[in-house]
Amino acid sequence: MEPHMPLSVLRCIDCGHTHDLNDPVYVCAQCGGLLDVEHDLERLRPLISRELFDDRLRHLEPPFNSGVWRYKELVFPAAPDEMIVTRGEGNTNLYRAPKGLAAWVGAERLQLKHEGENPTGSFKDRGMTGGMTHARMVGANSALCASTGNTSASMSSYAALAGIQALVFFPEGNIAMGKLAQSVAYGAVNVQVQGDFDACLDLVRQACRTFGIYLLNSVNPFRLEGQKTIVLELIQQRRWRAPDWIVLPGGNLGNTSAFGKALHEMQQLGLLDRIPRIAVIQAEGSAPFYQSYREGFAARHSVKAHTIATAIKIGNPASFYKAKRTLEWTKGIVESVSDQEIVDAKAMVDASGIGCEPASAASVAGVKKLIAAGVIQPQEEVVALLTGHMLKDPGVIIDYHQETLQGFNSPYANRLRTIKPTLDSVESLLRSARVTAG
Question: DSSP string of 165-202?
Answer without folding.
Answer: EEEEEEETT-S-HHHHHHHHHTT-EEEEESS-HHHHHH
